[in-house]
Structures are given as structure tokens and as C-alpha cells.
Specification:
heterotrimer; A mainly alpha (394); B mainly alpha (363); C alpha/beta (337); A: 394 residues; mainly alpha; MetI-like fold; 3-stranded antiparallel beta sheet; 13 helices; 7 strands; C: 337 residues; alpha/beta; D-Maltodextrin-Binding Protein, domain 2; 5-stranded mixed beta sheet; 3-stranded parallel beta sheet; 14 helices; 39% helix; globular
């Protein structure tokens, strides 16, 4: 019977009405259209570049940049090449994104919890904050904070000096930091080692608990390790106490660490804006854990710490992490607005490069590639996480 | 009723005075535990010490009249707004015919207001939207019916902001639906293209697309053809928004019950009929609230065109701020446009929440 | 349906885009106006006043071109451009001519697909500082925070200058001229560096112009010239000779006030220039009296200079390099014959 119908269909349905064949036709048509559009755009571009004799290729990366950059994590001068200038921008983007994400998660969690508070005043304040900061464009907020910093704060010569060694003026926030010393390098290595030990320790503790049921205080051990190891390192290194203290010399402060108004405005704007969204994410995550879970956990006698660690957090995080990651990505993408307030992030440096070399296509391509790397690695992480977190139904 | 009958003859114990009424509410909501009490006190004192000076600055010590001498007062200088509101709101639009953009905006707002109520959602409303958009276009552009022609280059301020966001979303929505359908499609070529497009666009910041529109896009066109900068930015915004709309619509499509597809198939509907008559009407209804969120972000994101030098609301404000007379009053000017943005976004997000509730019970 | 939509979109885009297949001159004549790229926020060179009327030296030079082509100074539309978008706008055909205080350099002339025309302002880069800083020379600026526009020749010059003198600088780069000035006046930077003319323009809009001074050092050559697309020679000639006509008129002593009397002059140079003796108009493809019209409607170079940036304006710039060659400046026009 079945075969009969099938036979009949293939005989009577004409070529054009066969869904499979039609689908192939559609696809060929679409592919042709895409190919045509791509060819059209590329050929136009080539013709335009040729006609206007605009240089092409990434050869410019090897040329001398010849412009200065205000803030840099690595050594940079105008004599360096474009490639290095762009890496300065890239690192600046990473810096502001990392610090921004860190602060955003803290502030966002705080606000999200406040939003669920039984205290009416706190609840409403958090709600007002969330509404206010979500509904004003981030760029406007950045402009506001930037103008606020340079219009409200005094000049370096009249800098505010609230505590010793810390100055606040329209050149930024300047404070003393420990004088460079080789021991700090070893301290950083010590932190790294501590992290590795903690990781192994956690695995071992888990294993032991699975086998014997004995719990091991991983958390406290971790804290001791992560603070203790570098401290021991510092002691052995001769406990250097020298500080690099900022001093007003010439036009600006020399020594110490300067947080520029551009960086501060960008960071503040990004954190205040994104935290409003993160707060909503956190609130939704906590609300997603049903009250029965808490009650059940208490009924089987878990301590409050265990309740949070073993019951609430794993379930809330399952809901929180995906949107939280996308908010982190948003923050990173929004950091590109640095260009508007003069913080030398990747987009800003690439923009200058575009302008100096006239090679717009390569410049915009670089910008897109860098952000695509960010977002693709984020989604790779998300996929991994989602796979790991799939609820195993038994 | 039952209860009262049952309780008849028994002594009704009223709750203690401390747990009802205003004192009760305060106790319950502000001082329920020592920790909460401390928090309340901290918050109240923070508010007291920040809000009061702010109000003093903004309302009491402030100057409001145009051309007031602000530099001598300590308070806010709202004169910057009252002296320059025309240029801030409408950019370089000829100032003697401002009634035209004002009418157009009024039309837009009233239509939006009517569209809030879902009972009015019918074909008639659709037509009135189309007609009104045409009328708005004529009002702004002029050139016919005896109206003086105004170049698009002179549209500035809130006109440009609204133009970019309203047209951005109107054009992006169909495009986004097509992309979402393409992404769900069983045809690998089309699916790959749509996935590639959506992920590419969502992976990069809008500013890179705007850069592209301002410096790369012109190179794509054949020799001698050029598109005006506003239109190029508009295209970039449409491309950007479409990818986000696509993801929202995809959510709606994925939420559809498989039975709907099977039922449509069994009725003998083809793909387009299935989509047009069965799937999309339901899927799009589910995604109205998230679509409003996309609209809100699109509206906020139009402010980015300031970076490529278009005179939107933010840029006209900055132009005003660069006048020697008004230099240094950034806070006032930015607060003013922040209020405009806030009011618009607040109404939209409120509406989206309201809809979410309504639609939630419906499905 | 989908195809229809795509088609509709394409058509709309095409309808709203401008075709400029022919040479720029024919194209401009066909559409009836010249699209000129200008600065948009530089007082004295290109800025719209509060009524939206464009003013400045660059704007007036562009008006000269408009008069040459159309016989009217108002057949112009202005596109304000940032430093970043200016060259693309020209390359793409969005504008017909760029009058945006652009420095002519070899690499721009070659690698960017542009052709520069007659310089309409000889400039040099300097530093603007608040007087209270107490600095008397640019050599004392070691360690200073410098406000500079990104993507300009000035950004590279200042880096070169500080390097050459073994000094350190801390740049603050903000895209928009006006925003940069605002940051400078608020004290974000110790000095602002740019072309001297721009500095004068910026100083003029300071809340207290008297509090600022321009340092004596000029650290670079900045010949500011209008630019057209590479390869359109006829259009380049027109822009070129429209600007040169301004200079030539000043050399010949013709001003907007006396131009009508000058028509009766017996000097063959003046007769040829003003089109009394026919010839030059035909040669360049314009009206015979294009030079007359320019001077009548816009004025000569000296008038434009004094009106926009001269000593009696807020900018108060002396002629200096921009004086006629006969007065020790660089302004020199080839003969109109």
C-alpha cells in the first residue's frame, strides 16, 4: 500500500512540485544570489581601490605608527609599529573588560539580592536603580561621567588629597603603589601555584568524600593557600616596603599609578549600566529556585552554608550563567564606545590607524575579527557549560 | 461569609495595632530584623545626603529663564535648555517651520499610544500606520503640497533619533523574521548563510558596523554611486537590529508545538502557507514582549551615530555644549536628554511587562 | 514575496542614492548644487551659526566654486565631516569637493585617491596653553598632557616633535574638535595642539579667551587645501581656479566693492580676468564672467580672510604667510590668460 502511493507520487508529481527538488532549486538560487552579491561588492571594491589608488593588504602593520597612545600596559612609543599599537589597544580593551566584568558581577549580584530584599526601601531603591540605568543609553552615560570627571575635579596643582599618597584631580586618580621589585614577579607565580594546588586539592577532597564520606575544609585551606603562599614569598624576598609615591612634578604627577578620567569614566559607565541588567539576571536566577528546595534541604539537616553551596547556587547558577555570560559579552562589546571618550581601546587605535593609512577595509576587518574572537570563545564556553550542566534525568 | 457565620458568637481578636496600618507596614517592611533596621538607616541617610543637595541644586538654586547669567549661581543652569531647546531637539531643521516636525512627532506618539491597546489591533490600525508614516515623511521632507523642501541632512536631534529607530525597527523586523525562518530551515545552504549572518552581526559591536557604513560601505558601491551618510547609518542599524530580531523570533518559533506543523502539513498547506497562516501569527504573538526590548535597545543604540558625526539628539546637545556661553554645563544638558530617553524607554519597557502579563495568561 | 521585498528595498536605496557616473562638473550641473564637505565645528573656517547659516574661510572658498559653476553662492549643500570620515566621503562621491582645512601631504595625495587643489590657507602646527601654566616655549612642555585630534597630521607631528626633542608626552585623543576643546578648557590637558588657525579659532570660543595663549613655536608646515577626487581633471581645474581667482583679484586690486568699476579698466590683465576680453571662461568650461561673479558675490581672498579670521574678528589672525607674495606672504596666483 505504502509503496504503491509512493510510486504513484513520484510518477504524477511534476518536477516543480516535488518538495525535495524544489528545495535544491531554492538553494541553488540562493547560493547564486549570494555569490552574485558577493562578487558584485568585491568587484566594486576592487575597482574603487584601484581607481582611487588606495593601498591594500596588511603590510601597514609593519610600518611605524608615529602616533602616541595615552595609556598602555606594555612599552610603547611612537617609534613602534602599527601591530604593536594595535596590541596596546587590544590589551586596553581586555583590561577594561576584565575589571568591568569583575565589578559588574559584584554590583549586579548585590543589586539582584537587594531587589529581592524584604526591606521595602532597599527593594525599591534597587528597582529604581535598575530602571534608571537600563533606560539611558550607555553612550550618554559615558559622556556624562567623562564630563563629570573633567569638569568637576580640580587641576593637578589643586588636586584633592583625601588621604596621604592619594590624589584626585582632572588628570585622574593617582595613588602610591609598591616600588617595582623582583619579588613581585615571584609572588605572582606563587598565586598561580596556589591556584593549581587548590584545584588538585579540591579533586582529592571530592574523591575522598565520595569514598569515605569525610569532608575536607577546602574553602578555608584555599584562602590560606592563596594569601599565604605569596606572603611567604614576599617575606623570603626581603619584605620590600618601598612605595612609589606620586609627586607633583612639572605638569603632572610622577610616580604611583594613575587611573585616567577616560578609563574611570568608561569603567564606571560600563559597570553601572551592565550591573542593572545583571541584577535582573541574578534576581531571576534566585527566584527560579523553588522554595521547596530550601525547605527540603533544611529538612535533611544541611547547614546554611551547605544549603547555599550544594542546593541553591548550583540550581540558580544554571539559570544565571547563560544570560550572565551574554551580559559580560555585551560589556566587552560596549567597551568599544571608549572611542567616544578618548580611551585608547582597540577600536580607537584601529580608528586612528584607519585614518592615518586610509585602509578602512583592513581596519574594520581587524575590529570585527577581534570582537568575533571574544564572542566565539564566549559561545564555545557556553556550549561547554550547557553540556556540562544538562540535567541528567534518570 | 462562611467564616463569619461560623465565627459568630466567638470573640474576634483583632491583630495588635503594631502589625496593621502604617506602623505595622513600616515595621514589617523596614525594621523586621536588626540587620534590616541597620540597612534602612544606612539607605535613608545616603538618600538624605545625596537627594537633598541634588534637589537643592536642580530645583532651588537653579536658573530657568533663557539667557540668565548662570556662571554666578551655584545651582543648575536649566537656561541652557530653555535657550537652546530648538537646536537640541531639532538640530538644523529650519526654525520657522518647526511645527512640521512637532506635528509629525505628535502623530507618531498618538499612534503609539493607540497601539498600546491590543483591542485596536486590526487592519485599520495597520493602514493608519502606513498612511501616518507617509504623512510624517511628507511633513518632514516637504517639497510637495506647497511645503518647503528640507534636506535629510538638516534633520537633526530627536527627528533623526526617531527616524533611525522607527524605520530601523520597521525594516529590521521583516528581515529578522526571514532570517529566523532561514535559520530554522531544512535547506543547508540557506541555513548556513542565516546562521553565519546572525552570529557575525551579534558578535561584533554596533560601532564597528557604523564605522563600516561610514568608511567601508562607500567602497562597495560602483563608481559614481553614493548613498547619503544618514541612510548608510540607517542600513547599518537595520542590519544590526535584524540579527537580534531574528534571535527573538527564533525563540518564538522554537516555542511552537510540533503538532502545529503536523496539523498544517496534514491540511496540505505548503511551507509558505504554513508559516503565514499557522506558525508566524502564533510565534510572533509570543515574542512581542522581547521584541519591545529589542526596540528599546535599538532606540538607545541610535545614540551611537554620534560617533560617526551624525547630528542626533546627543550630538546636537554636544554642539550646544561647545558654545562658549554654555561650556561647562554638561550635567544639565545630559540630564535633560537622559530624561527624554528615560521617559521613552520607561514607557516601552512598562508596556512590554504589561503585555507579557496579558499574553502569559492567554497561552 | 521575498523577492519582491528585496526588490523594493533595492529600488528605494537606488532611488535615494545619487548617481555620479559622468564627470563631477556634469553631475553637479545636473543635480543643481555642489555638495561640499566642511569641518562643521571649527569657528572661522567651517561652522554653522545658531540659525544654521554656514560661515568661514573654507565655506566662502566653497561659495566661490558655487559661483563659478552656477553664478550663485548658494547652490551649495554642506556636509559636516569628522577627521575620520572626510576622505571617505570624498572618495565615495558623497561630496563633490572637500573644503575642510585638510593638510596636503604626499601620502594623502597618492594613497588616498585624492587630488589637492590650490592651498587656501598656509598653516603650521602650534600649541595653545593656559597662561597660568607659565610656559613660554614648547620646549618646556616635557611631560605635559597634550590634547590632540586623532587621525590627523597633527597627531603625528606632535609625536615627532616630542621625540625629536627628547621629551615625553601624554596624549588625550578625542574625535570631535569641539569636544576636544571642551576637555582642554576644563583642564583635562596642559596644552592643545593643532594648526595655528584652529588654535586661534578654539581660543576665540574659550569662556575667557584672555586666559589662553599660543606658543611661538610652529612645529610643522600645514598647507590647507581643498581636495577633489583623483583623476577628474576638469573639476580639479574649476576648484583650483575658483580659489586662484580670489587671490588673483586681490593681486589686481579688485574687491567686491570696486569690481563694477574695474570692468571699465583698460588693464588687459583685468579685462581678461573679469571676462571683458573673452577667452578664459571658454578655456575652463565656465561662463566668461565667472571670475567677475566670484569677486562680486564672495569678494577677493583678502576680503574673505579679513571677514572670517582676520585681525578684526574674534580669531584675530594676521595675514603672515597668507599675505600676497608681494607683501611677503605665499599667496601667488598664476596669470589668468
Amino acid at each position: 500500500m505504502n509503496t504503491a502511493i509512493n510510486n504513484k507520487t513520484s510518477e504524477t508529481i511534476s518536477f516543480w512540485y516535488d518538495p525535495d527538488k524544489r528545495s535544491i532549486l531554492y538553494q541553488i538560487g540562493a547560493a547564486c544570489l549570494f555569490a552574485f552579491v558577493a562578487w558584485y561588492l568585491i568587484s566594486n571594491t576592487m575597482a574603487n581601490l584601484e581607481r582611487q589608488s588606495i593601498a591594500t593588504g596588511f603590510g601597514f602593520l609593519n610600518k611605524e605608527a608615529a602616533f602616541e597612545i595615552g595609556e598602555s600596559l606594555i612599552e610603547y612609543s611612537a617609534a613602534d609599529r602599527y601591530a604593536r599599537a594595535l596590541s596596546v589597544g587590544f590589551l586596553n580593551t581586555l583590561l577594561v573588560s576584565f575589571i568591568g566584568i569583575f565589578l559588574t558581577v559584584i554590583l549586579g549580584t548585590f543589586l539582584g539580592v537587594a531587589r529581592l530584599s524584604k526591606n521595602w526601601l532597599i527593594n525599591k531603591c534597587a528597582a529604581g536603580y535598575i530602571e534608571l540605568f537600563q533606560d539611558i543609553p550607555i553612550l550618554l552615560q559615558l559622556f556624562f561621567w567623562y564630563a563629570f570627571f573633567y569638569e568637576m575635579l580640580p587641576s593637578p596643582r589643586a588636586a584633592l588629597n583625601p588621604i596621604n599618597g592619594l590624589f584626585l584631580c582632572n588628570r585622574g586618580l593617582i595613588f602610591g603603589i609598591p616600588q617595582a621589585h623582583p619579588v613581585y614577579k615571584y609572588m605572582a607565580i606563587a598565586v598561580l601555584i596556589a591556584v593549581i594546588i587548590i584545584f588538585l586539592l579540591k579533586k582529592w577532597a571530592q574523591k575522598r568524600q565520595d569514598l569515605t564520606g569525610k569532608a575536607f575544609p577546602v574553602f578555608f585551606t584555599s584562602i590560606i593557600l592563596i594569601i599565604g603562599l605569596p606572603f611567604v614569598c614576599w617575606l623570603f624576598g626581603g619584605a620590600p616596603m618601598d612605595m612609589s609615591v606620586p609627586v607633583l612634578k612639572g605638569f603632572n604627577f610622577k610616580g604611583g599609578l594613575t587611573i585616567s578620567p577616560e578609563f574611570a569614566a568608561l569603567l564606571l559607565g560600563l559597570v553601572l549600566y551592565t550591573a542593572a541588567f545583571v541584577a535582573e539576571v541574578v534576581r531571576a536566577g534566585i527566584q527560579a529556585v523553588s522554595k521547596g528546595q530550601t525547605e527540603a534541604a533544611m529538612a535533611i539537616g544541611l547547614k546554611p552554608g551547605q544549603l547555599l553551596n550544594l542546593i541553591i547556587l548550583p540550581q540558580a547558577l544554571r539559570v544565571i550563567i547563560p544570560p550572565l555570560t551574554s551580559q559580560m559579552l555585551n560589556l566587552t562589546k560596549n567597551s568599544s564606545l571608549a572611542v567616544a571618550i578618548g580611551y585608547p581601546d582597540f577600536v580607537s587605535v584601529a580608528g586612528t590607524a584607519i585614518n592615518q593609512t586610509g585602509q578602512a577595509i583592513e581596519g574594520v576587518m581587524l575590529i570585527m575579527i577581534v570582537y568575533l574572537i571574544f564572542s566565539l570563545s564566549t559561545s564555545a564556553f557556553m556550549n561547554w557549560y550547557n553540556k556540562k550542566m544538562v540535567i541528567v534525568e534518570r | 461569609m462562611e467564616l463569619t457565620k461560623k465565627n459568630k458568637g466567638k470573640v474576634i481578636v483583632k491583630p495588635p495595632i503594631s502589625s496593621i496600618g502604617i506602623p505595622g507596614w513600616i515595621r514589617e517592611n523596614l525594621f523586621s530584623s536588626p540587620f534590616n533596621t541597620v540597612l534602612t538607616i544606612i539607605i535613608v541617610s545616603i538618600l538624605w545626603f545625596s537627594i537633598l543637595p541634588f534637589l537643592n541644586w536642580a530645583l532651588i538654586d537653579s536658573s530657568w529663564l533663557p539667557d540668565a547669567n548662570c556662571r554666578e549661581s551655584d545651582g543648575a543652569c536649566w537656561s541652557i535648555i530653555s535657550s537652546n531647546y530648538k537646536i537640541i531637539l531639532f538640530g538644523f531643521y529650519p526654525q520657522d517651520i518647526l511645527w512640521r516636525p512637532i506635528t509629525a512627532i505628535f502623530l507618531l506618539v498618538s499612534l503609539l499610544f493607540i497601539s498600546r491597546n491590543r483591542n485596536y489591533w486590526n487592519a485599520f490600525l495597520g493602514y493608519s500606520w502606513i498612511i501616518s508614516l507617509v504623512i510624517m515623511g511628507i511633513l518632514l521632507k516637504g517639497g510637495i503640497l506647497g511645503l518647503e523642501a528640507v534636506d535629510i541632512e538638516r534633520w537633526g536631534g530627536i527627528i533623526l533619533t526617531l527616524l533611525l529607530s522607527v524605520f530601523g525597527l520597521t525594516a529590521a523586523y521583516p528581515l529578522g523574521v526571514i532570517l529566523a525562518l532561514g535559520r530554522q530551515s531544512k535547506m543547508p545552504v540557506i541555513k548556513t548563510f542565516c546562521v553565519f549572518y546572525i552570529e557575525l552581526i551579534r558578535g561584533v559591536p554596533l560601532i564597528s558596523l557604523l564605522f563600516m557604513s561610514s568608511v567601508v560601505f562607500p567602497l562597495f558601491l560602483p563608481e559614481g554611486v553614493s548613498i547619503n551618510a544618514i541612510l548608510r547609518a540607517q542600513i547599518a542599524i537595520i542590519m544590526f537590529t535584524a540579527a537580534y530580531v531574528a534571535e527573538v523570533v527564533r525563540g518564538g518559533l522554537q516555542g511552537m508545538n510540533k503538532g502545529q506543523f503536523e496539523a498544517a502539513d496534514s491540511l496540505g498547506l505548503n511551507y509558505f502557507q504554513t508559516m503565514r497562516l499557522i506558525i508566524l501569527p502564533q510565534a510572533l504573538k509570543i515574542v512581542i514582549p522581547p521584541s519591545v526590548s529589542v526596540l528599546i535597545s535599538a532606540f538607545k543604540d541610535t545614540s551611537l551615530v554620534v560617533i560617526i558625526g551624525l547630528y542626533d539628539l546627543l550630538k546636537t546637545t554636544q554642539t550646544t555644549l561647545s558654545e562658549p556661553k554654555w561650556m561647562g554645563f554638561s550635567a544639565e544638558a545630559y540630564i535633560f536628554i537622559a530624561i527624554i530617553y528615560f521617559v521613552c524607554c520607561f514607557f516601552m519597557s512598562n508596556y512590554s511587562r504589561k503585555l507579557e502579563k496579558e499574553l502569559d495568561t492567554g497561552l | 514575496m521575498r523577492l519582491l521585498k528585496v526588490l523594493a528595498v533595492c529600488l528605494t536605496v537606488l532611488a535615494m542614492s545619487t548617481f555620479a557616473m559622468a564627470g563631477t562638473l556634469e553631475d553637479v550641473r545636473a543635480k543643481g548644487w555642489i555638495q561640499a564637505g566642511v569641518n562643521g565645528s571649527l569657528f572661522g573656517f567651517g561652522k554653522a551659526d545658531e540659525k544654521g547659516v554656514w560661515k568661514g574661510l573654507d565655506v566662502d572658498s566653497a561659495r566661490a566654486v558655487s559661483v563659478a559653476v552656477f553664478g550663485s553662492p548658494d547652490k551649495l549643500k554642506f556636509t559636516p565631516l569628522t577627521a575620520k570620515t572626510r576622505f571617505t566621503a570624498l572618495q565615495s562621491g558623497e561630496i563633490d569637493v572637500l573644503f575642510r582645512n585638510c593638510t596636503q601631504t604626499l601620502s594623502r595625495d597618492t594613497a588616498l585617491g585624492l587630488d589637492f587643489c590650490q592651498v587656501n590657507y598656509y598653516d603650521g602646527q602650534g600649541f595653545l596653553i593656559p597662561k597660568k601654566l607659565g610656559v613660554k616655549s614648547a620646549k618646556e612642555l616635557d611631560g605635559a598632557t597634550v590634547c590632540v585630534l586623532p587621525g590627523t597630521t597633527t597627531e603625528m607631528n606632535v609625536a615627532d616633535y616630542f621625540r625629536a626633542n627628547g621629551m615625553k608626552m601624554n596624549p588625550v585623543v578625542i574625535e570631535d574638535t569641539a569636544e576636544l576643546a571642551k576637555a582642554f578648557f576644563a583642564g583635562r590637558c596642559d596644552c592643545l595642539t593643532s594648526d595655528a588657525s584652529q588654535l586661534a579659532g578654539t581660543r576665540a570660543v574659550a569662556p575667557n579667551p584672555g586666559d589662553y595663549m599660543i606658543l611661538p613655536e610652529i612645529i610643522s608646515k600645514e598647507p590647507l587645501a581643498p581636495a577633489v577626487r583623483h583623476g577628474d581633471n576638469q573639476w580639479k581645474d574649476i576648484v583650483n581656479y575658483s580659489v586662484l581667482a580670489l587671490i588673483n583679484a586681490e593681486e589686481l586690486g579688485i574687491t567686491s566693492k570696486n569690481v563694477d568699476e574695474m570692468l571699465k579698466s583698460n588693464d588687459p590683465k583685468i579685462k581678461r580676468f573679469l571676462g571683458v576680453t573673452k577667452g578664459i571662461g571658454k578655456a575652463i568650461g565656465l561662463d566668461e564672467n565667472f571670475a567677475y561673479n566670484i569677486i562680486k558675490m564672495v569678494g577677493n581672498y583678502g576680503e574673505i580672510f579679513e571677514r572670517n579670521v582676520g585681525i578684526n574678528t574674534q580669531l584675530g589672525i594676521e595675514r603672515g604667510l597668507n599675505a600676497l607674495w608681494t607683501d611677503g606672504g605665499l599667496m601667488y596666483s598664476p596669470p589668468f590668460k
